[in-house]
Design brief:
Number of helices: 15
Number of domains: 2
Largest sheet: 5 strands, parallel
Shape: elongated
Distance between the termini: 63 Å
Number of strands: 7
CATH superfamily of the largest domain: P-loop containing nucleotide triphosphate hydrolases
Strand order of the largest sheet: 2-5-6-1-7
Structural class: alpha/beta
Amino acid sequence: MSDDLLEPDRVEGAPHPRETSALLGQSAAEAAFLEAFATGRMHHGWLITGPRGVGKATLAWRIARFLLTQPSDQGGGLFGEAPPAPASLDVAPDHPVARRMAALSESRLFLLRRAVDEKKGRLKTVITVDEARKLKNFFALSATEGGRRVVIVDAADEMNPNAANALLKLLEEPPEGAVILLVAHQPSRLLPTIRSRCRELRLSTLGAADMAAALAGAGMATDQSEALTALSGGSVGEAIRLANLDGLALYAEIVGLFAPLDRPRMLRLAEGAAGKGAEPRFDLMLRLFELFLARLARTGVAGPPAPEAARGEAALMTRLCPDTHAARAWAEAAQELGARARQGKAVNLDPAALILDTVLRIDDLAARLAAPQAYS
């Protein structure tokens, strides 16, 4: 099985970041990079951070395409004038460099990511030092061509300690013309010495308008972009996952359970988490229960969610969590039930039983909070 078939940096059902030409909602980060490029203050290491799924890898590929299509010498033109500063990172998709990068055949680009374990036929859980050591050969071979060389590390927080140390040496003594782009979902997991040798570009979550455009660009046009934005936290990757697994309908089922508790619906929901091939739906179900509880707890402090992610959500949450007392109780329940779910999944507890336990505990807390003594 080859890396072409298993790519750790691809969201299922969406184009790979190298195949995505446009990046929405991240103009500030792009402008910061362009300003550094235009003023000659280019850093050799760039740390691209932000929540998962907001376009970090897409930005890394846009920067790489841009750099490898720009002249290495940014000096004066024919009459000594400096060339005009580029206004964007856009590169025509039919540019030879863009085509080679899309085919993973550009010799001046190195992609460091988790490899496939050929014996087990699945992706390794970390980026190993063996993969990181390939950078030495990359720079040795590409040096003969001159000009810039670009490395994309996706994701840098997936490197094991030996791989991280190998990359650190490269950041400490970068080869001439090298630019290293580190995509990091959790930059706090990186070595402080790696972080200190990089300039950070922090990406933000997307609003509903940008989300709608991003989903349309990924071939997933929808009239439910506001609800997807709310549930995904402004992450395009998470929104695509929700759309692929019919997450909005699943969340609506969860909301509909508690008005009051609908036991037949509860049993159907639990059964849908079990059985062959149901693991992605089960994982999503646990995530949606976490979101439900978090949105419920916030209601007692900041008011009901707007926009709603499911019909009737605001009214239900106002009833279940009318004040800060209830908000504290739901926040504690979110932590407890989240821990129970993770533990249950780790020990392979029956998915249906785990979902039933979660629903019944939520219903029990709702009943206790509604009782007069809950406020005594």
